[in-house]
């Protein structure tokens, strides 16, 4: 019953809340969409938190994504043991990098008086949820080795079953508790998305790459003839 | 020819008394909200000095403005991909300590302190964290060269001087300083705009005012780095950037901006310039020494029939063309060539121009009389502020530009002295005027506009048509939020 709640109801609920909530927030109060950076108030400690965190987490998320979308490719890649070791080692290193960044974030939030002045309760909640996620992830990488291999035959088909609207619990129920926590916490993070500063992820300005440097706007004619 | 109109401004530095009235007017109007306490959209700094934020002119430190790479301009802070990949940590972002930590005093303690042996004092507290703090900087910390051994000596413009000239400058009897009030330059090639990843910053087509949309800004903070004048500020409370808006709600209703209106020294002029937008890139990539002249060439004669026709074709109204024809800015910048842009070498084409200071002047005693009428050729030596220093500020190092302006100002002063208190007639003074490239008629006009301008001579504001004014097309409450004046919803940040 609990498994059904957290592995069938929760993921769909989280996704609906995330998408609906983000659209609602964007439509009703775009003003709140911001990176809400505190680099201006404190920069030195932020460097050691923000740079490892962001580059690490982007790589890890892409890794998870590839594992879910192309599980067979990962399996084929891991066919040669050396490749498996490299993949696992990289994953663990990235996990530790992200963990270090997160610890810097937490210490900075807790100790710097200026940063504390712009820290909301939700920021702390988010940091703790993220910490739980990273700690479980790193522990899994250490305790249950060759995750890139078993991920492809457990989590990947589970996510596919979710995506095809025919959720199959069997893949998840047999997994160790730590992995379950990692998965459930991930759904919680997705659900929290629109209510936290995470919304800055949907504001990444790729359009800047092909925009002309200068922008001129007219009250009445949007584009000059 | 793509004619556009720009609300443009001139500050006459000889008249600035450094009273900060402009700064206070601006502060009261726009930046008294939480998160903006440290911002001074208008600030007045003493030169030589390091300014606000400290050492803002040093682009080795802040990487603002544009640099010429081959024939193309590149934002000094980085190209598009470089900016996008350094968004997690902007390496060139000034920190609050480069400005100052805003403070207030614990006044309530004066009334509520428990009885004791000592007088209660009002200790300073940070307006960010609320904790007690030691005040170590302020927006005009080096006012009137206070702490000159630390601040004025580190003025980056002094690099153009030799060690000996520098020592000379800091001898107490040779000491010289003047004030430079600064607002947003509303540039033609804005550095802040070029590096804004969100596309939140835009230049208004009708009047050239550069604004940041508070809705679209995502707080990536690159405008703060990209503006070489450090006139885009990050609001640490809302997580959005803000900047001078040239008081457009006032300008649209025919009033001069707050800092202009309140200026006690009456140093400020505002009016319309017509310019050729097709040539912006060409001018912004001109060789450094030619930048001032190139920018001048961009400005079009509003009485030229061809310009008028092209302006009308571009939708510029009759009233605006008429205002451009009466513009004090056009006369100062183009006709008389007296006003110069601040640091043109940043290549943003700033549209705020400064008449460099002639005062204080050195003079000698001759036969027991104060001898002002030295040879014209020496007049530039009569300026106590070194020409090289002024050239570093206002002409990208081109000393000839400064010499021309100072020579003209000196000749005009000399001429006016001759016609008001002189006894030898004005003929010799007129001869000097001729050498300075100025006619007697022009000299009288310039003196008039400099010394006794009326309100309507200083502020020649064009009437905005209904379709040009933002207030008519944007919902008022929202519009207040976009100006940074108020917020449609309070920012949710902090405990």
Uncertain spans of chain B: 479-488
Biggest sheet features of chain A: none
Q: Supply the CATH architecture of chain A.
A: Up-down Bundle
Oligomer: heterodimer
Question: In what order do the strands lie side by side in the largest sheet of chain B?
Answer: 13-12-1-15-14
Q: CATH fold name of chain A, please?
A: Fumarate Reductase Cytochrome B subunit
By DSSP (H or I, 4+ residues per run), the number of helices of chain B equals 23
Give the number of helices of chain A: 10
- The CATH C-level name of chain B is Alpha Beta
**Structural class determined from secondary elements of chain A:** mainly alpha
User: Which class of chain A in CATH terms?
Assistant: Mainly Alpha
Short description:
The complex is a heterodimer of chains A (225) and B (495). Chain A has 225 residues and is an all-alpha fold.
Task: Describe the overall structure.
The complex is a heterodimer of chains A (about 220) and B (about 500). Chain A is mostly helical. Chain A has a single domain, classed as Transmembrane di-heme cytochromes, Chain C (Fumarate Reductase Cytochrome B subunit, Up-down Bundle). In chain A, about 70% of the residues lie in helices and about 0% in strands. Chain A contains 10 helices and 1 strand, in the order H-H-H-H-H-H-H-H-H-H-E. The longest helix of chain A has about 30 residues, at about 80-110. The N and C termini of chain A lie far apart (about 65 Å). Chain B is of the alpha+beta class. Chain B has one domain: Alpha-Beta Plaits, CATH 3.30.70.20. Helices cover about 35% and strands about 15% of the residues of chain B. Chain B contains 23 helices and 17 strands. Chain B has helices at about 20-30, 60, 80-85, 95-100, 110, 165-170, 190-195, 220-225, 250, 260, 280-285, 290-300, 305-315, 320-325, 330-335, 380, 385-395, 400-420, 425-435, 440-450, 455-460, 470-475, 475-485; strands spanning about 5-10, 45, 65-70, 70-75, 105, 125, 180, 200-205, 210, 230-235, 240-245, 270-275, 300, 340, 350-355, 365, 370. The longest helix of chain B has 22 residues, at about 400-420. The model of chain B is unreliable at about 480-490 (pLDDT under 50). At the A-B interface, helix 2, helix 5 and strand 1 of A face helix 3 and strand 8 of B.
């Amino acid at each position: 019953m609990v498994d059904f709640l957290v592995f069938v109801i929760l993921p769909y609920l989280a996704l609906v809340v995330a998408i609906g909530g983000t659209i609602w927030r964007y439509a009703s109060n775009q003003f709140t969409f911001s990176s809400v950076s505190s680099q201006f108030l404190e920069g030195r400690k932020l460097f050691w938190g923000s740079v490892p965190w962001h580059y690490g987490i982007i790589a890890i998320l892409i890794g998870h994504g590839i594992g879910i979308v192309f599980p067979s490719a990962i399996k084929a890649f891991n066919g040669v043991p050396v490749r498996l070791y490299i993949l696992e080692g990289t994953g663990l290193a990235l996990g530790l990098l992200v963990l270090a960044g997160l610890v810097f974030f937490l210490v900075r939030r807790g100790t710097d008086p200026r940063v504390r002045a712009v820290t909301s309760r939700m920021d702390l909640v988010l940091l703790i949820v993220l910490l739980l996620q990273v700690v479980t992830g790193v522990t899994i990488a250490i305790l249950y080795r060759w995750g890139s291999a078993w991920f492809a035959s457990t989590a990947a088909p589970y996510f596919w079953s979710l995506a095809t609207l025919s959720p199959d619990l069997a893949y998840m129920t047999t997994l160790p508790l730590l992995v379950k926590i990692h998965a459930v916490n991930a759904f919680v993070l997705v659900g929290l998305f629109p209510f936290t500063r995470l919304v800055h992820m949907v504001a990444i300005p790729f359009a800047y790459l092909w925009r002309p440097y200068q922008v001129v706007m007219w009250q009445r004619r949007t584009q000059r003839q | 020819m793509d004619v556009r109109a720009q609300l443009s401004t001139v500050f006459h530095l000889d008249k600035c008394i450094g009273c900060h009235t402009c700064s206070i007017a601006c502060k009261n109007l726009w930046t008294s909200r939480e998160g903006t306490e440290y911002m001074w959209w208008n600030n007045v700094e003493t030169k030589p000095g390091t300014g606000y934020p400290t050492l803002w002119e040093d682009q080795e430190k802040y990487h603002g403005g544009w640099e010429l790479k081959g024939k193309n301009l590149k934002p000094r802070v980085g190209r598009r991909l470089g900016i996008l990949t350094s968004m997690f940590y902007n390496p060139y972002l000034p920190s609050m300590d480069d400005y100052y930590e805003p403070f207030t005093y614990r006044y309530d303690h004066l009334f509520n302190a428990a009885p004791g042996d000592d007088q209660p004092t009002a200790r300073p507290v940070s307006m960010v964290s609320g904790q007690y703090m030691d005040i170590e900087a302020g927006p005009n910390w080096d006012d009137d060269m206070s702490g000159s051994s630390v601040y004025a000596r580190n003025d980056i413009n002094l690099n153009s001087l030799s060690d000996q000239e520098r020592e000379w400058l800091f001898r107490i009897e040779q000491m010289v300083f003047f004030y430079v009030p600064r607002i947003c330059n509303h540039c033609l090639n804005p550095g802040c705009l070029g590096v804004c990843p969100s596309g939140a910053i835009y230049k208004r087509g009708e009047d050239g005012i550069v604004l940041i949309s508070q809705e679209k800004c995502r707080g990536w903070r690159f405008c703060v780095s990209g503006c070489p004048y450090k006139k885009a500020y990050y609001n640490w409370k809302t997580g959005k950037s803000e900047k001078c808006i040239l008081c457009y709600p006032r300008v649209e209703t025919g009033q001069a901006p707050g800092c202009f209106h309140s200026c006690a020294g009456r140093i400020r002029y505002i009016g319309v310039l017509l310019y050729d937008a097709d040539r912006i890139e060409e001018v912004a990539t001109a060789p450094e020494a030619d930048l001032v002249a190139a920018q001048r060439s961009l400005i079009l004669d509003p009485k030229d029939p061809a310009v008028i026709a092209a302006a009308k074709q571009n939708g510029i109204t009759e009233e605006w063309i008429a205002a451009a024809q009466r513009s004090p800015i056009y006369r100062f910048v183009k006709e008389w060539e007296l006003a110069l842009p601040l640091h043109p070498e940043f290549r943003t084409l700033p549209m705020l121009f400064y008449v460099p200071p002639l005062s204080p002047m050195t003079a000698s005693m001759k036969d027991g009389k104060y001898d002002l009428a030295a040879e014209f050729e020496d007049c530039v030596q009569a300026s106590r502020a070194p020409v090289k220093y002024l050239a570093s500020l206002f002409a990208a190092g081109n000393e000839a530009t400064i010499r021309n302006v100072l020579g003209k100002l000196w000749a005009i002063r000399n001429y006016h002295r001759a016609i008001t208190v002189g006894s030898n007639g004005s003929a010799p003074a007129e001869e000097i005027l001729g050498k300075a490239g100025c006619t007697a008629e022009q000299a009288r006009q310039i003196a008039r506009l400099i010394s006794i301008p009326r309100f309507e001579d200083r502020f020649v504001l064009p009437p905005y048509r209904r379709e040009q004014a933002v207030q008519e097309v944007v919902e008022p409450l929202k519009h207040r939020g976009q100006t940074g004046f108020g917020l449609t919803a309070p920012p949710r940040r902090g405990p």
